[in-house]
Every structure is written in C-alpha cells, then in structure tokens.
Design goal:
The protein has one domain (2-121). The chain has helices at residues 2-24, 45-78, 84-121. Helix content is 75%, strand content 0%. The chain is mostly helical. α1 packs antiparallel against α2 (45-78) and α2 runs antiparallel to α3.
Length: 126
C-alpha cells in the first residue's frame, strides 16, 4: 500500500507540473511577416489562466480519487460479511467521500464568486 501511495503522489505531481507549466513556457504568437502578438492584454491574465489550470487538474484528480474511494469502500461494505464494525467503517468512509465531493463543488462556486466580485470591483471584464 505504501508503494501504491507513493506511485499515486508521483503521478499526480507530474500531471500538475506538466499542466501548470505549459502556459508559463508558451511563446508569443508570431504571425507570418509580422511582429510578436501578446496573447494576454491584461497583466493578470496569465496568473488567472494558471490558477484555472491548476484548479482543473486538482478537480479532476479529486474526482478520480473520490470514484476510487467510493468503489473501494463500496466493495468493503458489500464484503463485510455481517461484521457491523467493517460495515460501519466503510459506510463512514463513503459518507466522508461524498462530503469531500460537495466541498470541492462548493469551492468552485466560491472561487467563481470571488473572481466575479473582484472583477466587478476593479472594473475588469473577463
């Protein structure tokens, strides 16, 4: 189990690094016969794009892990064989996973609300 956890952490770290670094190392767009065009007119746009990518990766990873946890604990619940302690533990883990999914969903709306309020206060259009 320890090796599996280390493998998962390594995989997730690699995905986050690759996904987050791609906009940072992107070159300016240079049309044929023209000069470089800055794709970001707003100075905060690259940071917002980076945050969006990081949040997207974290959300996908959390969703995948939640699916794995629910499946694993569902199997534990089914195979508890009448043992009330195992069934109670598996059921509690399933409920905790569902609560975690709800928190991730609420975080998305809180981030978007803060972004909308911030853009309204500073008169920026997204």
């Amino acid at each position: 189990m320890k090796k599996f956890s280390l493998w998962i952490v390594s995989l997730l770290s690699g995905v986050i690094i690759i996904t987050a670094a791609s906009p940072l190392f992107a070159a300016d767009i240079v049309p044929v016969g023209g000069s470089a065009v800055n794709a970001y007119a707003d100075p905060a746009q690259p940071i917002n794009t980076l945050y969006d990518k990081i949040y997207t990766v974290i959300t996908y990873v959390a969703g995948a892990l939640a699916l794995i946890f629910i499946t694993y604990n569902g199997i534990q619940y089914i195979s508890s064989g009448g043992d009330a302690g195992k069934a109670k533990t598996a059921r509690a883990n399933i409920i905790n996973t569902i609560i975690g999914i709800a928190i991730i969903g609420a975080a998305y709306f809180i981030i978007r609300l803060a972004e909308t309020i911030g853009n309204t206060v500073f008169n920026r259009v997204v």
